[in-house]
Amino acid sequence: MLCLQVKTDAAWANEAIRDLDSVLIDHAHCELKAASSATSLVARFAFIPEIARALSEIAREELEHFERVLAFLQHRKIALAPPEIDLYAKELRSSIASLPSPGQTPLVDRLLVGALIEARSCERFKLLLTALEESGSEDRELAEFYRDLFECEARHYRVYVDLAVLVATDRAFVEGRLELLAQREGQIVARLATEKARATVHG
Fold first, then answer.
1. Rounded-to-integer distance, Cα 110 and Cα 134, Å
2. Which alpha helices (DSSP H) does 19-170 contain, by range?
3. pLDDT bucket at 107, cuts 50 / 70 / 90
4. How confident is the model over 115-163, as pLDDT tens digits?
5. 131, burial (CB in 10 Å: exposed 0-12, middle 13-18, buried 19+)
6. Model confidence, pTM
7. Which residues are CB-neighbours of 168 under 8 A, at least 6 positions away?
């Protein structure tokens, strides 16, 4: 799906359904982190209007998603526990240092990491949506929410990639860079799948 080189194991969705409350908690924190990441890029690169406008819109949407997840948690009478360390995002950002660096790529890499995170979210939300539908879940509102998010994350992915092309002014370079980062992302996902004790949105 999109640029991903390693598919999520189908068992992930079954684990997620069995512990949906924990997944919703993790999801809430993911939306906050996505909003924070977008706004931090706006703050650093506000002098590029296209980036400021596009990522401000993404940040607003991520906060809206957070509010919707929070509403589901409140309906289930679940408190939002403190966030755990996001090993997936941390290792993905750290992997940039191991890539060949022509010198003009810091912002491009940050944007492409954002694209990869959105792509993985998109894939997982699609799996979760399918699992909810196949399980006969009566929570149709939650299933519809993940249907909306599946489409939204795919759009966010495209925005991040297009912004990277805007900055680099070279689509071929961006596509090659994205492929390198996607290889690292796949390795991280494959390893975390064997280490994580429970299903999370990214790990």
1. 36
2. 20-44, 49-75, 87-94, 106-134, 140-168
3. very high
4. 999 999 999 999 999 988 887 766 788 989 999 999 999 999 999 999 9
5. buried
6. 0.94
7. 104, 105, 108, 174, 177
For 65, residues 6+ apart whose C-beta sits below 8 A from its C-beta are 31, 149, 152
- Other beta carbons within 10 Å of 2: 17
Tokens of residue 103, six digits: 């010198």
Residue with tokens 């596509």: 175
Q: How far is CA 168 from CA 3, 94, 111, 171, in A?
A: 18, 21, 11, 7
The count of C-alpha atoms lying within 13 angstroms of the C-alpha of 198, restricted to the half-sphere facing its C-beta, is 13
Type and span of the H or E element at 12: helix 11-18
- CA pair distance 10, 144, nearest whole angstrom: 20
DSSP 169: S
Q: Are 167 and 106 in contact (CB under 8 A)?
A: no
Q: Residues 6 or more apart from 189 whose CB is under 8 A from it?
A: 6, 8, 88, 120, 202, 203
